[in-house]
Amino acid sequence: MKKHIFQTGVVMMLAFGAAQAQDVTAPTQVVQKLKSYESVISYRLGKQSVSLGNLNQVLQQTGYPTLPGQFTVFGFQTEQTKSGKRWALVSQFDFALGPANQLSTTNGTNTARAFFFQYGVGGGYRIINTDKFVLMPKLMVSPAFFRLNVDKNGTTQPSLATILSNPGSQQSARLATMTITGDLGLSGQYRFVYGATTKQTDCGSLVQERSLVIGFDTGYRLGPNTGFNRSNNSDGNPTVNMSGWYATVRLGLGRRYTTVQ
């Protein structure tokens, strides 16, 4: 009798241990919580001022009319933030465009053409953060580039063989400079929702809103004087200061993803 009781107890202990081991080794299903966030991509069009005083002095001394201190710029901007949060990550890119007389100057023999572009990354804090309107001071680091191409009027570009045999025959020169600027600005935008979809998930409902975004940016970029990079004869080259005010308007699309439990 005792022997049967002992055997029964051993069997029960082994069965209980196997069940416990099965519970331990069984895979645990992990449910990931969906995050709510907002993303905006917009095109920018506006004005950027650049300090060309030193360069314009040299242009005047050699018979060129001066270049304007403002460029029309075109580019794009991205802005991302978690829904309901005030901090936002901002990135942008702008390059100068406009009529020929804005970006070039000639002394009758040669033509000097200017090119300008910048990109930046930084962050902002939304002091006004509603479903319809956002107002946000921002601080960014923006590398800026300026290039001046000087070409002889009425000449065609020589072939590669001609340039290799006589580099001076190309009758042109390329000068470039770059600097790191700090960008302190103010950004605002209106959202006009034009569509929404809802997707059911294990965590609840995921609502995706699509919106049209109309906004503006204004601020000041501050950078040091920087000279044109030349492999030789760099002494006496003019400097460019890409500090200046800017103002742009923006038009783009936004998406907001929100999880509803």
Describe the structure.
By secondary structure, the chain is of the alpha+beta class. It is about 15% helix and about 55% strand. The chain has helices spanning about 1-25, 55-60, 100-105, 160-165; strands at about 35-50, 70-80, 85-95, 105, 110-125, 130, 135-150, 170-200, 205-220, 225, 240, 245-260.
What share of residues is helical? Answer: 10-25%
Shape: elongated
Q: Low-confidence spans: pLDDT under 50, at least 5 residues? A: 19-32
* Strand segment count: 12
Strand content: over 45%
Number of helices: 4
Please name the defining characteristics of this protein:
8-stranded antiparallel beta barrel, alpha+beta, two-stranded antiparallel ribbon, 261 residues, elongated
